[in-house]
């Protein structure tokens, strides 16, 4: 009996406050069977099944990805389109499970992926704040407290009861950022969102992220703007075709990436 | 040997079991909140920009009933008894609740793809919300039913205490709808033509459910046997006929006219088995949703 109890109690590693690892990816791989041409009609599916023509391609999106992030650290992820950057963020969030390898994440995660993707454009800003707030895990009480600060941050006081279909794309992005950023998470994942909105709002976003960093929030930022990565992150991970090319000091990695991109042209 | 008192056991409770339960509780609270917001959105958006708004939910079944009454009662002279109005309305309300719940759920995952590909979220909240809105709509339709019952009661008293049995019937109907919804919404992620197929199927299903006809004067014995069997195997026939039984048949003493003998227990067996199969199908396929949606 004693043994069983022992088994279910794996020895926890003890970390000191400073070097506590909050995200750890070990040999993560992601692949899925992609039909050469996407079949999404039954007729096609059966026709091809009979003809034996369902070609299934194994597509490797990520291969052997290992890196870790310590508490309070900010890490940038750079690489060309389709390198697998967003997939990594989705794996850390838990939206998709990797086909191999292990993922360890400690603390609450707030994903800022593709702002506004979850909005219902028929509904008003107020209704969207309520629904998206619930999805991010706010309780009714928390949302009531945060509601005015969200609206204020987005600068949409006058438009709060207007359906989103009448909003400009910049307004939508502002609303999305304002809702997501108010979570005060342990870990913040930022995907390409700093490139939307006007200059004014971009500055506001960067400031907000810096403010969170000072509070000790761990950040992972995906961006095509190397300046931003250099400014906001201490370290950077460079990914190409689903594999890590280099990990290290953000300035150094960004410079190498810049040279590589230019040499390819 | 006493493991319950050993320090390791209490440490296990403190370190593993308690955080697990707290997490589950949090997750449940979060999902409940999401479902409430989705239901609110669904009901609000359904009648946005319409002049009389939510009154449509009451008016819709009434208008449907009158259309059917005009066609089958007046033109085809199938039945022009006053209670036939009630007969039509009972069938309509139940079938349309199922239709609303399932056809809305069918597209719910794909419709909300923006939410579920960008957030960690339990996928079944979407069909669940559609099913709850359908039940709310049912309650509105019930107002229409009461109105018709009052009108019919002038000639034949139909109100009986059995009307309260609607309350225990609803969870069974909900479970059946929910099970169907889970299967349909999962299929729709992979095969988009399920929607067209299901629309045709719904029409067929409606004609094989006793909504406007009664099983009498069928002609040959052979036909009667086949139809009786179809009624027995059609879950909707059970729900529709049970609802009619408790709404007025039991009062006016025409229970023998029901096309299928049914009971609350039968309804729960149907509901539970569909919910279980639906949950199984959904949980097996859900890992692949994200790649096809």
Give the SSE map.
The complex is a heterodimer of chains A (265) and B (293).
Chain A: H1 2-7, E1 21-35, H2 42-51, E2 56-70, E3 74-78, H3 85-93, E4 100-105, E5 109-113, H4 125-135, H5 140-154, H6 169-181, E6 187-191, H7 199-214, E7 218-222, H8 226-232, E8 235-240, E9 243-249, H9 250-264
Parallel strand pairs in A: 3-7, 3-8, 5-6, 6-7
Antiparallel strand pairs in A: 1-2, 1-4, 8-9
Helix pairs in contact in A: 4-5, 5-6
Chain B: H1 7-46, H2 55-75, H3 83-111, H4 113-118, H5 125-153, H6 166-190, H7 194-207, H8 221-233, H9 235-252, H10 264-292
Describe this structure in words.
The complex is a heterodimer of chains A (265) and B (293). With 265 residues, chain A is α/β, with parallel strands linked by helices. Chain A has a domain at 72-98 and 107-264: 3-Layer(aba) Sandwich (Rossmann fold), CATH 3.40.50. Chain A has helices at residues 2-7, 42-51, 85-93, 125-135, 140-154, 169-181, 199-214, 226-232, 250-264; strands spanning 21-35, 56-70, 74-78, 100-105, 109-113, 187-191, 218-222, 235-240, 243-249. In chain A, helix 4 crosses helix 5 and helix 5 crosses helix 6. In chain B, helix 1 (7-46) packs across helix 5 (125-153). In chain B, 35% of the residues are buried. The radius of gyration of chain B is 23 Å and the shape is elongated. Chain B has one domain. Chain B contains ten helices and no strands. Chain B is mainly α and 293 residues long. The interface between A and B is large, with 38 and 40 residues.
